């Protein structure tokens, strides 16, 4: 009986198949160097929003062009976390912090979870969510608007 209310899969020629899960249409996207990353698009009951689909098609190029800014922001977050740990602000850690001495060394400790495309304050926004090896309690989000990295936010 509940199958009557289930949305049919949506197929996009460029992006593949999306299935409706709660409030999002879920598919995958390859964001170099991350392959098969879950992609969540806002939309209605019948299909993803056309502007979200358009942004999703541009996302691999956007991401590649902004990767240096994203890794710098992740590295700065790591440095702040390391400083707070050294000052005792975070209590005792279960494992020692990784040895990371520059932004390029961040990626082995960063695990992309998903990419989300939806409007934020009326502006079409991409948010790539990351889990990081040194902070298991938070998921960080790199936000992009108009093809540019705008911020790294915590606990997305």
End-to-end distance: 35 Å
SSE run: EEEEHEEEE
Q: Can you give the mean pLDDT?
A: 92
Number of helices: 1
Strands across the major sheet, in which order? 1-2-3-4-5-6-7-8
Number of domains: 1
Overall geometric form: elongated
Q: Which structural class do the helices and strands define?
A: alpha+beta
Number of strand elements: 8
Strand content: 35-45%
Low-confidence stretches: none
Helix content: 10-25%
Provide an overview of this structure:
The protein is α+β, with helices and mostly antiparallel strands and 156 residues long. The protein has one domain (2-153). It is 24% helix and 41% strand. It contains 1 helix and 8 strands, in the order ββββαββββ. Strands 1-2-3-4-5-6-7-8 form an 8-stranded mixed β-sheet, covered by helices on one side. It is elongated, with a radius of gyration of 18 Å. The model has no long low-confidence stretch (mean pLDDT 92).
Keywords for this structure?
alpha+beta, eight-stranded mixed sheet
Short description:
With 156 residues, the protein is α+β, with helices and mostly antiparallel strands.
SSE topology sketch:
Blueprint: E1 10-12, E2 16-21, E3 24-31, E4 34-42, H1 50-86, E5 110-120, E6 123-132, E7 135-145, E8 148-153
Parallel strand pairs: 4-5
Antiparallel strand pairs: 1-2, 2-3, 3-4, 5-6, 6-7, 7-8
């Amino acid at each position: 009986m509940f199958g009557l209310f289930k949305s049919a899969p949506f197929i996009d020629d460029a992006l593949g198949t999306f299935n409706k899960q709660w409030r999002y249409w879920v598919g995958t996207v390859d964001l170099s160097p991350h392959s098969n990353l879950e992609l969540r698009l806002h939309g209605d009951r019948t299909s993803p929003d056309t502007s979200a689909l358009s942004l999703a098609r541009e996302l691999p190029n956007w991401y590649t062009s902004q990767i240096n800014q994203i890794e710098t922001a992740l590295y700065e977050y790591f440095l702040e976390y390391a400083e707070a740990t050294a000052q005792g602000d975070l209590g005792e850690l279960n494992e020692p912090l990784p040895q990371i001495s520059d932004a390029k060394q961040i990626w082995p400790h960063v695990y992309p979870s998903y990419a989300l495309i939806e409007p934020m304050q009326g502006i079409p926004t991409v948010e790539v969510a990351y889990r990081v090896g040194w902070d298991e309690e938070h998921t960080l989000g790199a936000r992009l608007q108009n093809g540019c990295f705008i911020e790294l936010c915590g606990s997305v």
